[in-house]
Amino acid sequence: MAIQLLCRKLGTTQIFAENGDCIPVTVLVAGPNTVVQTKTVDKDGYTALQLSFGERKPSRTARPLAGHFRKANVAPSYHLRESRITPEEAQAHAVGQQITVDIFEKGQRVDVIGTSKGRGTAGVVKRHGFAVKRKTHGTHEAFRHGGAIGAGSYPGRVFKGMSMAGRLGNRRVTSLNLEVVEVDPERSLLFIRGAVPGHRNGVVCVRPTVRSRA
């Protein structure tokens, strides 16, 4: 278990390495995150840090939430997220402490957790990659349909989990084992190779990877 830093996705660009290679990267505003609350095993049954991210006007903060921030003596924020950690790590962090992008380093492997872009209701061709039927040999009015979904005379029903039309995107996605190309502590920026889930200005969580490179 490790701290999951709340970040904001700025967008994608490219940077050039010293040898001239062009590297596609996603730029994230990585923190700083403020510790608002500490969860302990004795009191809550588990160990975690509650982190806040994104400045928010006190006048636009609900009273119960404003009282929660006031109790921790920290400024109100838009986003609150818990990060599971070990009891040993929890002892090294206090309420009000800021966690910055310095917890990551160049070349480190990380996981990025976010919500994918919502594409609305989509058919089976766009959602599952079904082939479009040929516009010949008697095919009509069903070029992008899924075809038969039954299982024959036995068991005579549609199996659960059948690939059909429905909502596409807008779900939790975790991109594993991505490379940190550059860290800019002065501007709190994190440059990650490739794409990460979510839309521009979306909030994502970055953590040290749980999967070693194969």
Detail the topology: elements first, then pairings.
Elements: E1 5-16, E2 22-30, E3 33-39, H1 41-44, E4 48-55, H2 63-72, E5 77-84, H3 87-90, E6 98-99, E7 109-115, E8 120-122, H4 124-128, E9 166-168, E10 172-184, E11 189-193, E12 203-208
Antiparallel strand pairs: 1-2, 1-12, 2-11, 3-4, 3-6, 4-5, 7-10, 7-12, 8-9, 10-11
In brief:
The protein has 214 residues and is mainly β.
Explain what this protein looks like in three dimensions.
- The strands form three sheets. The chain has a six-stranded antiparallel beta barrel. The protein has a four-stranded antiparallel sheet with strand order 5-4-3-6.
- The model has no long low-confidence stretch (mean pLDDT 92).
- 11% of the residues lie in helices and 39% in strands.
- It has four helices and twelve strands; from the N terminus they run E-E-E-H-E-H-E-H-E-E-E-H-E-E-E-E.
- The two termini are 21 Å apart.
- Strand 1 and strand 2 form a beta hairpin.
- It folds into two domains: 147 residues, Double Stranded RNA Binding Domain; 46 residues, no CATH class.
- By secondary structure, the chain is mainly beta.
